[in-house]
Amino acid sequence: MTPPGRDYSWLPEHQFHTAYTLAHVDALIGRAGEVLYDYFLDPGPFTLENIVDGQIVEVRVKKLAPLPAAVARYAADAMTQLRALIEHTIFAEVEYLLGRALTDDEARAIEMPAATSEAKFVEWLRQRRRRDLLPLHDGEPLVRRLRHLQPYQRVDIDNHPMRVLAEHTNLAKHRTPAIAAVRLGRVILDAPEPAVTTMVGGPLQVGDVLAAGPSGKQVPLTILPEVSIQRPHTKTWHIVMKELGALQEWTRTTAIPHLIAGTSDVSQLPPGLDITIGHENVRAALSAASEKSAVQRSLWRIQAETARQSLTEILALHHQRVDPAVIRTWLDGLNDDAVMTAVGRMQYSGAQQLDRVVREMLAEAVTATGRS
Question: Would you give the distance in Å from CA 327 to the centre of its chain?
């Protein structure tokens, strides 16, 4: 049965391929997330050192760990597949509307423009090979849909997803691999301290001073690195998983349904379709597929790993005194969902319940590991 609110009758059989490619894109983004997770966990993006310079202590970058090359390449592959998906959708729609296969010359006319003005879009339509295809005549439904998705429809043209996707894929396909780098996100002081200065976010190199303050004062701080990808046309840097997630989401929830159905007000195609197996009933498989994207899964995994560390420290403070190694071993044996459930048990417990919840967790840890 189709869950309430999920109806894929809008997706015709000749466009089933869109669901498969979206799932493939999600798998590629998931691989990028896995590489990044391991990179942040071990060895970590950078090693820090404290350097005393007179009355000032500086937190400096001692060593930068090389970023795995797979990150940029998985990202480029995912974006290339997204752009291909959009063009495959247009191709399939034109063939369906014509009721016949396209000739080689006609097939070469099928693409997704990323026009920065109405004049450029019209110029694209009027190119000879497209003039011969009725579905690509101005005024036809498919052309209205293409026009709706053009970058010039937004005031901020450079940030339109189709423009961003086109620029990234043009770079990756024709010039160089995608450009990704480790950068400093920000430095956060855990408590306000006017005497401490911090580096603003940006590129990192060995010797950079991330924070500096009086040598006699301890100030806890949090340093947040990020792995970013550079947009070719603006030269701005964007966190790679956020960039991939935004482009995937726009393609999945806006571009594809609009090209096929003329609206995005339809049940969205889920990213979690399993394409390692065959599906006799594609719509039924879509209804059963996970709606959680690779970016969401990656974020959940990172949150769970952070929670493991925090829970270990918090539970070890209890006067019952269980070895932190025992607590961590127990938490490592739990899946991410169970760890986040444990966090929720503590967050939503009142003051009187909290001690009982902590005791229960410690008992679970001792029982699961056979140690105390």
Answer: 31
148/250 same-domain check: yes
| Same domain, yes or no: 135 and 83 | yes
For the chain, strand residue ranges (E) read: 46-53, 56-64, 180-189, 197-198, 202-203, 209-214, 221-230, 237-239
Tokens at residue 128, please? Answer: 């000879």
Backbone angles phi, psi at 65, to 5 degrees: -80, 130
DSSP letter (8 states) at residue 236: -
Report whether 146 contacts 256 (CB < 8 A).
Answer: no
If asked whether residues 213 and 306 sit together in one domain, one would say no
**pLDDT tens digits, one per residue of 310-343:** 899 889 988 888 999 999 999 999 999 999 998 8
With tokens 């009027």, the residue in question is 126
Of all helices (H) and strands (E), which one includes residue 215?
Answer: none
pLDDT digits (tens, 9 = 90+) for 140-186: 999 999 999 999 999 999 999 999 999 999 998 888 888 999 999 99
Specify the 3-state DSSP secondary structure of 290: strand
pLDDT in tens, 118-146: 999 999 999 888 888 999 999 999 999 99
- Do 118 and 211 belong together in one domain? no
Helix (H) or strand (E) holding 138: none
> What DSSP designation does 3 have?
P
Distance CA 212, CA 224 (A): 16
First to last CA, the chain: 48
In sign, the C-alpha dihedral spanning 71, 73, 77, 83 is positive
Nearest Cα to Cα of residue 8 among 270, 262, 249, 250 = 270
